[in-house]
Each structure stands twice: as C-alpha cells, then as structure tokens.
C-alpha cells in the first residue's frame, strides 16, 4: 500500500511538472495553465481557496455563462471548483495521454455530475442472449481498414446536448438507429430522444429494476424493445427535446423509422470494430469517471473500472494511432460521440484507447436493425 501511494503521489507531481513544461502545445495551453496555475504540487491547501483559484473560477463563470443566485451558492461552487482543480490534476497523472482540466462541469461535485449527466443502468451485457434476441454473428476481422470514421460517410448527426437530464441512454439509442437507417437508405434523419424520455418504461429481462425512467436513466436495449412494441420513433422536429420528462405525446402516424430487431456485440474489440465498419455506429455503455475533466487527446487511464458502467454514448469509428499530448507514445483509439454539447471534449467527441477493454467500452455494445420499406 505504501509503495502504491508513493507511486501515485509521484505521478501527480510529475503530471503538474509535465503540464507546466508543456506550454509549447498551443491547442491546449489555456486549459493546462488553468489546471496548473501558480502551483507545482497537488496540495489541497496550496492556493486552492485563495485569489488564484477565485480568479480562475471567475474566468470559468464568464466562459460558460455561469450565474449563482446567492453569495452562499457562489462560495459553495467555488469550493467545489477548487477541489475539481485537484481532481483534474489527479486525472492527468492517471491518464497522461489525454489532457484534463477545467470544463463546463467544473462547478459540480462528482455526485451531482453523475446524477445530472449519466444514466445507464445495469452491468455489461455484450454477447449475451435476451428475450430470444441473440448476440451478433461472429465476424471476421481480416482486411479491416486501419482507421474508420462514420462521420466521414455522413451517417452521424450533429453533436446533441442532453442538458441536466440523465437521458444519455436515449441519445445513444437514437444515434445507432440514425446510423442504421442511413446505411440502409442513404437518408440521415434526426430522431426524437424526447419520445424515449417521455414514453419508454421498458425493463431489462434479467435485471428487473433496470427500467427506462426518463431523466433518471435507462438502457439502450430496453429502448429498442420499447420501439419495436410501439411501432417506431418520431423525428426530432415532430417530437422535440425539452431536457425533462413530460407526458407521452407519441403519435404513431408520425413514425419516421421502425426498429425490427437488435443485437448485442461480443466483447472482443476487433469484432466490435468489424461490426462497426460493416453495420454502422454502435450504442455503448462505459465508465465515465474520467470524462468530467476531459478536454482532449486519447484517454487511456492507468486504472478505470470495467464493470461500473454509468454512461451511454455512440461508437462512430476508430483510429490506428492517437496523438499523445505528452509524447508518451501513440495508441489506437475509439472515436466516441457524446451528448454533452460541442463545448465538451473534442467538439463533443471523446477518444478512448482501444484494445484493452478500457473503462468497460466492450461490455455493453449493441446495434439495431430497421425497416427499410
């Protein structure tokens, strides 16, 4: 334990030192400076609640349009912000091939962030059978392209914003349906997450408490089952997103796409890549513990639990070699579409290293089949 603690402490110190020395990286300069500021040591009592932290906090408020109703709330958020500066430095030490720092979520505690922006329920289920719907067929991985990106093919809608609603599962669901429909028809439609938030109450066959529950979370596979039973999903234009749960206003005559079946994908990441290339973007669940502070680069944390999945996203592609911010080596990576708006991450996208089951990326993967006529 003492040796592990020493390694961790050294890692945090090195992260601060490397970040301070990494100023020639122009794309990430402002955020790195925000994280490291005046200090070179991860000390909770060193300038965190002083003038330096408050100046950074005020810049954060301007950049992200933050306002607080009372002085007490302002001071409360300042304290959380100061703690998140340390958390970002800790993440940087644990995840040196990415850049971590101040984001739009830096005034939220970890518990608040998870409650507002995450919403996947249940454990990884890839490769299992459910209600007669089996796992995807085994697919060969030979002759796969070195890199692949469905955005370049026109199969991915713009990055969306779920707001303070744990509806990530709904955005993951619509993303894979949008992609499947595009591949089948050549038409890209923007589908309604709000229909799922308002109307979907489907439950998992094996985890009876894992039911879709609007802004309180859900599962992509549950959503597929609901859509099969409901007869399909409307477009965003006919059932727009509000960011909160309301009365179900689904109109069958407005259905834009019908879901006919769904499948779960085996945990082998090469086979996930093969299915992605041949069938389109995939809905995935992952452990988002490093995403609150993520700014850019290829995230490849030294430790990231694979069973604690709490966030639904869309897998749209992969790359063979990711740029290493701190020159610590190139890594193959997944390209992931998030639903926290374009100000987060790399214009709304996340790159996560590929081939290690990182953060459980391979344990909750699914795809849908849609009706083409």
TrEMBL record:
<protein>
    <submittedName>
        <fullName>Cysteine protease rd19d</fullName>
        <ecNumber>3.4.22.41</ecNumber>
    </submittedName>
</protein>
<keyword id="KW-0378">Hydrolase</keyword>
<dbReference type="GO" id="GO:0004197">
    <property type="term" value="F:cysteine-type endopeptidase activity"/>
</dbReference>
<feature type="domain" description="Peptidase C1A papain C-terminal">
    <location>
        <begin position="144"/>
        <end position="369"/>
    </location>
</feature>
<dbReference type="Pfam" id="PF08246">
    <property type="entry name" value="Inhibitor_I29"/>
</dbReference>
<keyword id="KW-1133">Transmembrane helix</keyword>
<dbReference type="InterPro" id="IPR038765">
    <property type="entry name" value="Papain-like_cys_pep_sf"/>
</dbReference>
<keyword id="KW-0812">Transmembrane</keyword>
<dbReference type="InterPro" id="IPR039417">
    <property type="entry name" value="Peptidase_C1A_papain-like"/>
</dbReference>
<keyword id="KW-0865">Zymogen</keyword>
<dbReference type="GO" id="GO:0006508">
    <property type="term" value="P:proteolysis"/>
</dbReference>
<feature type="transmembrane region" description="Helical">
    <location>
        <begin position="6"/>
        <end position="25"/>
    </location>
</feature>
<comment type="similarity">
    <text>Belongs to the peptidase C1 family.</text>
</comment>
<dbReference type="InterPro" id="IPR013128">
    <property type="entry name" value="Peptidase_C1A"/>
</dbReference>
<dbReference type="InterPro" id="IPR025660">
    <property type="entry name" value="Pept_his_AS"/>
</dbReference>
<keyword id="KW-0788">Thiol protease</keyword>
<keyword id="KW-0472">Membrane</keyword>
<keyword id="KW-0732">Signal</keyword>
<feature type="domain" description="Cathepsin propeptide inhibitor">
    <location>
        <begin position="57"/>
        <end position="113"/>
    </location>
</feature>
<dbReference type="InterPro" id="IPR000169">
    <property type="entry name" value="Pept_cys_AS"/>
</dbReference>
<dbReference type="InterPro" id="IPR025661">
    <property type="entry name" value="Pept_asp_AS"/>
</dbReference>
<dbReference type="Pfam" id="PF00112">
    <property type="entry name" value="Peptidase_C1"/>
</dbReference>
<dbReference type="InterPro" id="IPR013201">
    <property type="entry name" value="Prot_inhib_I29"/>
</dbReference>
<dbReference type="GO" id="GO:0000323">
    <property type="term" value="C:lytic vacuole"/>
</dbReference>
<keyword id="KW-0325">Glycoprotein</keyword>
<keyword id="KW-0645">Protease</keyword>
<dbReference type="InterPro" id="IPR000668">
    <property type="entry name" value="Peptidase_C1A_C"/>
</dbReference>
<keyword id="KW-1015">Disulfide bond</keyword>
């Amino acid at each position: 334990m003492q040796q592990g603690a020493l390694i961790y402490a050294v890692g945090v110190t090195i992260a601060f030192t490397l970040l301070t020395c990494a100023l020639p990286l122009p794309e990430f300069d402002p955020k790195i400076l925000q994280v490291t500021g005046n200090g070179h040591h991860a000390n909770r009592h060193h300038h965190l609640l002083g003038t330096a932290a408050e100046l950074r906090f005020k810049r954060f408020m301007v950049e992200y349009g933050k306002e607080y109703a009372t002085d007490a709330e302002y001071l409360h958020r300042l304290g959380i912000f100061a703690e998140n500066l340390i958390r970002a430095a800790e993440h940087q030490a644990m995840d040196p091939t990415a850049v971590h720092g101040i984001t739009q979520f830096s005034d939220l505690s970890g518990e608040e962030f998870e409650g507002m922006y995450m919403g996947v329920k249940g454990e990884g289920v890839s490769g299992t059978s459910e209600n007669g719907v089996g796992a995807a067929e085994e697919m060969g991985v030979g002759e796969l392209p070195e890199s692949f990106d469905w955005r370049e093919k026109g199969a991915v809608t713009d990055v969306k914003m779920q707001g303070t609603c744990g509806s990530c599962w709904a955005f993951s669901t619509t993303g894979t349906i949008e992609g499947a429909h595009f591949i089948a028809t050549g038409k890209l439609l923007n589908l309604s997450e709000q229909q799922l938030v308002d109307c979907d109450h489907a439950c998992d066959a094996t985890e009876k408490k894992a039911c879709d529950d609007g802004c309180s979370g859900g599962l992509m596979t549950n959503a597929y089952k609901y859509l099969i039973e409901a007869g399909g999903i409307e477009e965003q234009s006919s059932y727009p997103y509000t960011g909160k749960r309301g009365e179900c206003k689904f109109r069958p005559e407005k259905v834009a796409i019908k879901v006919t079946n769904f499948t779960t994908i085996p945990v082998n990441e090469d086979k996930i890549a093969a299915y992605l290339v041949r069938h389109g973007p995939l809905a995935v669940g992952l452990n988002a513990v490093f995403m609150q502070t993520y700014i850019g680069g290829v995230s490849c944390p030294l430790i990231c639990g694979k069973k604690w999945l709490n966030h639904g996203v869309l897998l749209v592609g992969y790359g063979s070699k990711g740029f290493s911010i701190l020159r610590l080596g190139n890594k193959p990576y997944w390209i992931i579409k998030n639903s926290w708006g374009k100000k987060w991450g790399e214009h709304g996208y996340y790159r996560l290293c590929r081939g290690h089951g990182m953060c459980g990326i391979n344990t909750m993967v699914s795809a849908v089949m849609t009706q083409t006529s």
